[in-house]
Design goal:
heterotrimer; A mainly alpha (about 475); B alpha+beta (about 180); C alpha/beta (about 1050); A: about 475 residues; Formate dehydrogenase/DMSO reductase fold; 16 helices; B: about 180 residues; alpha+beta; 4 strands; about 15% strand; rod-shaped
């Protein structure tokens, strides 16, 4: 039996029956897409076009198309990469960690969160490629046996660790997501009225028949996947943070980076989840599945993680001051008061100060506030990466090499365009796959008792009309 | 080819089917399987399904990944392609940790999923033998094996209906 | 040929438009490769077909590698049918030669292509040094904009036609002028004589764009010797220079830098004392021990006061009655004392082209007894001669139409003459106007006839840059275009048909250097003939200086309150001769670090007074003329109320690079006064006409921010304690000399290549930068890219300023919140762009620090490269495998010295970068030993690994172990002040090993323990201030008196 914690109100409201759940959630799949969907989809396609154009241009003329220089070798490219990887963390985190902790409220949001993970990692990967001077040899950091005989990669390089971490993370998230989808795909298959749908969903349902034996193994494997995904999530952003932590650039060379980056990742991840779900709630009216309780819970996480990163920012200053290393000290002072002070204070106000509104329960339950906050959080987290990368590089050891960095139109287009890529994929997902995990949701709605008997009988007849075989 | 006859009890409620199954088992019927739109906790234990050994497999896969990673990195950086990199020693264990960890996870995940599909005999495009299209929607079905002129079908139906089956029907399954 | 896309001919056949050849060009193996015959014939004898095959193959090899250059006169070009025995593909040949500026060089050629100009170590004068500009001249050879054939009124013509016309015109001309630059070539003079003999009405005028004429003029008056003396800075213990940039651009900078640096060896515990009075911050001034910024108008008065102070000490009468002047005369007093104390071994020089001033300098030197020792009138210099007055007269005659035929012999006065409009008008009037210039520049485009001379690397020539020092220029390649050297043209027009090689040989027959064949061959091999210095004499100073006094005084008083203009020339483009040279345009100015541009140097105070900010555009006008909207650069060390502008920019023609380069022509502000051209103006008005102009600087932050990047000490401190200013703050963290590390070191058996840079000797002249560009095929990226901070130079010279506040305490931090917090108690900060009343911007001390890849033992770049594109060699080199690089730029980010350069674009065959790498001919300069990098890969200094390998191979061939000095990096080879030392640290007696053991040596960012292979040596200044305590680096760090070694918790 499923238990709900008595102190929390029902996770799914509106007295939904199993059937309602199925109907509600498969509606977008089985009916022509709504106006809202079309608008969103075409919009994101448009933005995606910008991304394609800008990236292609860069590959053709070379990285000179960007604003980088001899001193600032990374800027928008890696900022965007870390930003997207960060966003990619909430998905797995929600599914895995909350599953381990048996947090049932996760059930209505984990599907879209996982989807988000996968799309975000795709965006991130696109920056790994496009930031390379010679993207056509982008596969070289993978240790492949090759025609040149012995020629391997450098296992000391955090970039190689990245290659392994990101690809592992992507593929594991993908299978985790797919396993979770199988029962729901089966549902769609069994409801399918058109041949095409029957075929395609049948193909991916892998002959799921909902037998208890399968369910039993399903439970076990979900648990194990969750178990391994949790350390994976933590490891991925830790490794990303090592790109900086293992270098000797003042402002990068910091041991607190791994936990600080993970916190940041969760923070931004939940920010993005909020953005998506608040929209989904409206556009697909999932209000009964993504209730205020969900929003409230996520808001709390945002506030906590936000405060954590805020603390990290302050700790960095203390460490720099305490170290007595003038280069470190200058790097941090330069962040707050140097030419890029505005980016630093944007970061501070978005990530540390703004989330404090969530001390108020009202704010936590108000979708409008949440939506605005989720955007602020994402802006703040983007700037965090910008601050770390650019302000540290542009003034390091030798003043003779100090330089300023200004992005070009191309770079800005690629950043904006990457959102196009992300939402393009997300809209496709919401059209063709159930964006809420039906099976799990069903397991947490209260079971009907005899007072619903009538409904059940109607129900039976309804199916009878559908031509199901009757016994007795 | 020989056929297998089953009586299906269709329920609309996990509690009811749980009760029914319990009853049937106590009265010594052999349950083919119980089909449901979601996992009904406890019913697997009821049916005496032993805890899956997938977790053991997981551990083995992890170990494989780990050892392969270590062997490969040591081979490359110490034996096959020793280079002077930033003055660090060729056998530089700490830097192997991240990749070793990632590979262990990777192997586990894929190994697990693979074995999951194998034990369930699942594969793409398998055309499912569906006991009732509604078990993936909102109904719960218990399938009881019956032997010709051995099982008392009446009594069986009785139990099923008493426990609130909304329909009971017979199914011939060919293997 | 004219409308042929090929910019040069690939063989006689093409030149003569031989139809057969053109046919073959379309189809390389016209007769097919006759392999069957090659393989079927029994007798191995040659066969016509195969010879043809070989011939066409020879054409195919390389465009201008047709002719091997050798010591025989090049009459015509022959393909390699038979390989010339002195050319081995892959092995460079070196030929001794001489640049037009008279510097002895070695020309490195590969397969017949000159690819680099290096100093000639055997030259007793230049000792292996060569300036940035002279190295740059190499690009001129491969300039596809050069005139490819003679031209008659704008159309290409044949030599015969042109010669006929010119001769006809000359014959009918009644008043002929030949205008040349400095003419110090014996054969050249003979050729000219031959010409003048034929045309008696001809007069010869020597004209230099940036004239030094006054010096010779003054010596004529003072000592009856119309020469520039041979200055001997190496013999001078006290050097006083009035605006003479002798380490950068003045007379013979390479020679002087060699001499000067020999007196700057701190280890001798004594150094020359160098005092500079100047009106802009010059390379020389930036290296002086003491530097006084002065107004040009005050120079005369200073000289007179100096004269009088010394006179007082010498007990000779002072000059006239010097009216009262308010000047900080105590500094003159001190200078006088020092000079007097070192009399006979001191030297006063003056850069101004004012006759009076040069007379005064002559007088002072003679009073100090320097004439004959450091001021040598017997071993004089011929490097510069310019008769400004004569040229002025010529210009007037030409304008009036009195001159009807003029020949411009390799000079471009229409650009550089202050009244170029009048000159241009005159040239148009003249019946005959001929130019032998290589390019279609401002002058030659006005001339009716162009008789283009060849580049000096494809011509024969001789010269006498210094008295008795006869230098030879020999061709290292056959003429690329249909050109003829000017001397030969003169001979032709004088109906002398002799080949110029024979003509020179003829001249030399009468000289010791060529009397016998052996002597000739030796001179040719050495590149010069020098019997050694003549005995010196000390003629008495016999001139009346009284007139000078009043002139100087009135100039001083009338312009005291006025703003003044000072013109100067830069080490790169000099007087404009090199404005079409991409290397030199992109060479950062040693002081301002500006590329591709000139600008108005304005002092902070003056800028504040006039309400000017950096990047504002101003128009400078005077009676003489105007400089329209030139950008402002706020230049520390610039005297107040003086604006300095470099000449050589603002070209209107003479090559695409010259035109592309930004900048304004400042020559219009010069004027003739008292027989010589004076480059400046004592009464100008400044008007702001715009703002927001960005200068392409390679360095935009000017101080060390109180970091321990530069270490310096005063000579006194150094003598007391050799480690002064260089105390080890990490002693406690060290284990036998190295900072503690986590892991054991790789053993470094065999060689370990290291470099030492003596900050005390580096003058910042930039010769090393150009040498590196040439050696390592470093691309030119252009102004726009430099603005984006993307210059590609593998070696850069960081220039740091240190200011003083009112109490004379050092200021090294730029105003800003960060430094406000970090600065020590009572430490002041400076600000160039905002209100700053504490800093004295006129008084600045400068350090030049060359920075190349430090080849760190614990290289941070290697650790982070994902694909092992950069790894360490067993010889301590940090290698870069371009082909493996994927371009993540992680290495560059992680390089604390920021010496790695990324190929943001494809810099060759790309019209966005239309420089020497964008055409076939231009690419001939590429060094085949060094990969040309592709787009998207990282590159950096390799310690000239190709030269290291060459050195090893040579040793191997000679069957010996490599010895110290076998390998010289390009930057080291060329350095005019011997500031760079390279070698094997594992060879205990190598020079570099000694430098590493030197107490002055320190490593940059030592505390990060990246273990660099480049050591820097403390800068020692010959002053008695406290320096050692400055620049200790760590924030709020209090230095303890020299001598003590205490543990420092700072930067550990």
């Amino acid at each position: 039996m499923s238990y709900e914690s008595p102190i929390r109100d029902q996770l799914v409201t509106g007295g939904k029956t199993y059937r309602d759940v199925t109907r509600d959630i498969t509606r977008p799949l089985e009916n022509p897409p709504s106006k809202g969907w079309w608008i969103g989809f075409s919009l994101s396609t448009l933005v995606l076009a910008i991304w394609i154009a800008a990236t292609t241009y860069t590959v053709i003329v070379g990285l000179g198309a960007w604003g980088l220089n001899k001193t600032v070798g990374w800027a928008f490219d890696i900022t965007n990469f870390v930003f997207w990887v960060g966003i990619g963390h909430a998905g797995t985190l929600i599914s895995a960690v909350l599953l381990l902790f048996r947090q049932k409220w996760r059930m209505s949001i984990n599907r879209s969160a996982e989807a988000m993970t996968i799309f975000a990692v795709i965006c991130a990967a696109s920056f790994i490629l496009s930031h390379m001077g010679r993207p056509w040899v982008a596969y070289w950091p993978i240790p492949l046996p090759n025609a040149l005989g012995t020629l391997w990669v450098n296992f000391n390089s955090p970039l190689v660790w990245d290659v392994f971490a990101i690809s592992t993370y992507f593929s594991v998230s993908l299978v985790f997501w797919y396993i979770g989808l199988i029962p729901d795909i089966a549902t769609v298959r069994d409801r399918a009225t058109t041949k095409a749908r029957k075929f395609w969903y049948g193909l991916f349902a892998m002959g799921w028949n909902g037998s208890t034996r399968t369910w039993h193994r399903y439970e076990v494997i979900s648990l194990i996947l969750a178990g391994i995904s949790t350390p994976l999530v933590l490891s991925v952003h830790s490794i990303v943070s090592m790109d900086f932590a293992t270098s000797l650039v003042p402002g990068w060379h910091t041991t607190i980076f791994p936990p600080y980056f993970v916190a940041g990742a969760i923070f931004s991840g939940f920010g993005m989840v909020l953005t998506l779900l608040v929209i989904a709630r409206e556009v697909m009216n999932y209000k009964d599945y993504i209730t205020e309780a969900h929003l409230d819970a996520m808001a709390k996480i945002v506030m906590v993680t936000g405060t954590m990163v805020g603390m990290a920012y302050i700790t960095e200053f203390f460490v720099a001051a305490y170290s007595g290393v003038e280069y470190e000290q200058y790097a941090f002072l330069n962040r707050a008061f140097g030419p890029y002070w505005w980016s630093y204070w944007t970061m501070m106000s978005c990530n540390l100060i703004a989330p404090q509104v969530f001390w108020s329960a009202k704010a936590r339950k108000n979708p409008k506030v949440l939506f605005v906050m989720s955007i602020i959080v994402n802006i703040g987290m983007w700037f965090e990466r910008f601050v770390i990368i650019v302000t540290s590089l542009h003034r390091d050891f030798l003043p003779s090499s100090w330089a300023m960095y200004t992005p070009t139109v191309t770079e800005v287009s690629i950043l904006i365009g990457s959102f196009g890529l992300f939402f393009f994929l997300y809209f496709l997902f919401s059209k063709f796959l159930p964006s809420i995990n039906m099976a799990e949701v069903k397991s947490i709605i209260p079971t009907h008792h005899d007072d619903h008997g009538h409904a059940d009988h109607h129900h039976a007849h309804a199916t009878a009309e559908k031509g199901a075989v009757h016994g007795h | 080819m020989d056929t297998k006859k089953m009586i299906l009890g269709v329920y609309d409620n996990p509690d009811k089917i749980y009760a029914a199954t319990k009853k049937l088992i106590n009265s010594g019927y052999s349950i083919e399987d119980v089909y449901s739109p979601f996992a009904i906790h406890g019913i697997d234990r009821l049916m005496g399904i032993k805890r899956s050994r997938l977790s053991v497999a997981a551990f083995l896969f992890a170990m494989t990944g780990l050892s392969l990673a270590v062997i490969f990195q040591v081979y490359v950086s110490k034996i096959d392609w020793p280079m002077i990199i930033g003055g660090k020693p060729n056998l530089h264990i700490p830097t192997y940790i991240p990749i070793t960890f990632e590979l262990s996870i990777l192997f586990t995940a894929f190994g697990m999923v693979a074995s999951f599909f194998i034990v369930n005999r699942m594969f793409w495009g398998k055309n499912a033998d569906i006991i009732d299209p509604r078990v993936t929607d909102d109904l719960f079905v218990v399938a009881v094996n019956i032997k010709e002129n051995k099982t008392d079908v009446q009594a069986l139906n009785q139990i099923l209906i008493e426990n609130g089956a909304i329909e009971v029907r017979e199914r011939i399954k060919e293997d | 040929m004219e409308n042929n896309k090929h910019s040069y001919w690939k063989g006689l056949e093409e030149l003569n438009q031989d139809p057969k050849f053109l046919e073959n060009k379309r189809n390389e193996f016209a007769e097919g490769i006759p392999l069957d015959e090659v393989f079927t014939e029994e007798d191995g004898g040659m066969n016509a077909n195969r010879r043809d095959f070989l011939k066409y193959f020879g054409f195919g090899i390389s465009a201008v590698a047709l002719a091997a250059c050798n010591k025989a006169p090049i009459k015509n070009a022959i393909p390699y049918i038979v390989k010339p025995e002195n050319i081995t593909p892959g092995i460079p040949n070196y030929y001794a030669s001489t640049t037009p500026s008279g510097c002895s060089i070695l020309v490195k050629t590969r397969e017949g292509r000159p690819i680099k100009i290096e100093g000639n170590p055997e030259s007793p004068i230049f000792k292996g040094g060569v300036s940035a500009a002279d190295q740059g001249t190499l690009l001129g050879l491969y300039d596809n904009e050069r005139l490819k054939a003679p031209m008659a009124s704008g159309k290409e013509a044949s030599w015969d036609a042109v010669d006929a016309d010119i001769k006809k015109a000359l014959a009918s001309a009644s008043n002929i002028r030949v205008v040349s630059g400095t003419l110090n070539s014996p054969s050249g003079k003979r050729a000219l004589a031959t010409f003048m003999a034929k045309y008696p009405s001809a007069k010869h005028i020597q004209y230099e764009a940036f004239s030094q004429g006054a010096i010779a003029e003054a010596n004529q008056i003072a000592f009856g010797k119309n020469v520039i003396p041979g200055y001997r800075f190496d013999k001078a213990n006290v050097i006083v220079s009035f605006g003479a940039d002798f380490l950068g651009t003045w007379i013979s900078p390479v020679e002087f830098a060699k001499q000067w640096s020999s007196t700057r060896t701190a280890e001798n515990k004594k150094m020359s004392r160098h005092i500079q009075f100047e009106s802009y911050l010059s390379v020389t001034g930036s290296n002086a021990d003491v530097r006084y910024p002065i107004k040009p108008s005050a120079e005369g008065v200073y000289l007179i006061s100096l004269y009088n102070k010394i006179a007082a000490l010498a007990g000779v009468p002072a000059l006239g009655s010097m009216p009262a002047v308010e000047l900080p005369l105590n500094m003159i007093e001190l200078t006088a004392k020092e000079l007097w104390a070192a009399k006979g071994a001191s030297l006063v020089v003056c850069g101004s082209n004012n006759l009076d001033h040069q007379l005064l300098v002559a007088a002072i030197n003679s009073m100090l007894g320097n004439v004959g020792s450091t001021y040598d009138l017997d071993n004089y210099s011929n490097q510069h001669y310019s008769n400004d007055a004569a040229f002025d007269t010529f210009a007037n005659e030409l304008a009036s139409g009195a001159v009807d035929a003029v020949i411009f012999w390799g000079t471009n006065p229409v650009y550089s003459y202050y009244n170029s409009a009048k000159l241009a008008e005159g040239i148009r009037k003249a019946k005959l106007s001929v130019s032998t210039n290589l390019l279609l520049d401002e002058t030659s485009e006005l001339c009716k006839y162009n008789a283009p001379a060849g580049h000096f690397l494809e011509s024969w020539n001789d010269s006498e840059p210094k008295a008795g020092y006869f230098a030879l220029t020999q061709p290292t390649i056959s003429p690329v275009f249909n050109t003829r050297q000017a001397e030969e043209s003169l001979l032709r027009w004088a109906d002398n048909t002799s080949n110029y090689y024979d003509f020179i040989r003829e001249t030399w027959k009468g000289m010791a250097g060529g009397s016998s064949e052996e002597a000739w061959v030796k001179s040719l091999h050495d590149g010069f003939y020098y019997a050694g210095p003549k005995a010196t004499s000390a003629p008495k100073f016999a001139a009346d200086l009284s007139s000078a006094v009043n002139a100087a005084y009135s100039t001083y008083t009338t312009s005291k309150a006025k703003k003044e203009l000072k013109l100067y020339s830069k080490v790169g483009v000099l007087d404009g001769t090199h404005s079409n040279n991409p290397w030199l345009q992109e060479l950062p100015d040693p002081i301002s670090k500006v590329t591709w541009d000139n600008y108005a140097n304005v002092s902070k105070a003056t800028a504040d007074e006039l309400g000017l900010k950096e990047g504002d555009l101003i128009t400078i006008s005077s009676k003489a003329g105007k400089i329209e909207s030139i950008p402002v650069l706020i230049q520390p060390g610039q005297p107040n109320n003086v604006i300095a502008v470099a000449v050589g920019y603002g070209r209107t023609s003479g090559g695409k690079v010259a035109k592309l380069a930004a900048g304004k022509n400042a020559y219009g502000m010069a004027a003739l006064s008292n027989k010589t051209t004076v480059y400046g103006n004592f009464d100008i008005t400044i008007e702001k006409v715009g703002s927001g102009y960005e200068l392409a600087q390679t360095q935009t932050h000017h101080t060390i921010e109180g970091r321990a990047i530069i270490k310096e000490a005063s000579l006194g401190e150094y003598v007391k304690d050799a480690k002064a200013g260089n105390h080890d703050h990490h002693a406690t963290l060290k284990e036998n000399g190295n900072l503690l590390t986590l892991w054991g070191e790789h053993d470094s058996k065999g060689h370990k290549w290291t470099m030492a840079v003596d900050l005390n000797k580096c003058t910042g002249c930039g010769a090393c930068v150009v040498a590196c560009n040439a050696e390592n095929n470093v691309p030119v990226v252009g102004r726009a890219e430099v603005l984006k901070r993307r210059e590609m130079h593998w070696i850069r010279i960081d220039r740091y300023y240190k200011f003083k506040d009112k109490e004379g305490k050092g200021i090294t931090r730029e105003k800003g919140n960060a430094s406000a917090i970090l600065k020590a108690e009572g430490e002041n900060v400076y600000s160039l762009d905002s209100e700053d009343t504490t800093t004295n911007f006129e008084d600045v001390s400068v350090v030049h620090q060359p920075l190349m890849c430090q080849h760190c033992g614990h290289a941070p770049c290697e650790t982070v490269c994902p694909v092992l594109a950069t790894v360490h060699s067993s010889e301590g080199l940090n290698h870069m495998a371009y082909n493996r690089c994927v371009g993540t730029r992680y290495c560059a980010n992680n390089c604390p010295y920021k010496v790695r350069r990324f190929n943001w674009f494809k810099y060759r065959e790309n019209d966005q970068f239309d420089f020497n790498f964008n055409n076939d001919l231009g690419r001939m300069v590429i060094n085949p030993d060094v990969t040309v990098r592709s787009r998207g890969v990282m590159e950096k200094c390799s310690f000239c690994v190709q030269r290291i390998q060459a050195g090893k191979l040579k040793a191997k061939l000679e069957n010996r172990t490599i010895k110290d000095g076998d390998v010289k990096t390009a930057c080291q080879q060329t350095c005019p002040s011997d500031a760079i030392i390279f070698g094997d640290i594992n060879d205990a007696n190598s020079e570099v090993a000694k430098y590493f053991k030197n107490e002055r040596s320190y490593f940059l960012l030592d505390e990060y323990n990246v273990q660099p292979s480049v050591a820097y040596l403390t800068k020692v200044r010959n002053i008695d201030e406290k320096l050692a305590e400055e620049h200790h680096g760590a924030a709020k760090h209090k230095a303890e008196p020299a001598g003590e070694h205490k543990k420092e918790e700072s930067h550990s």
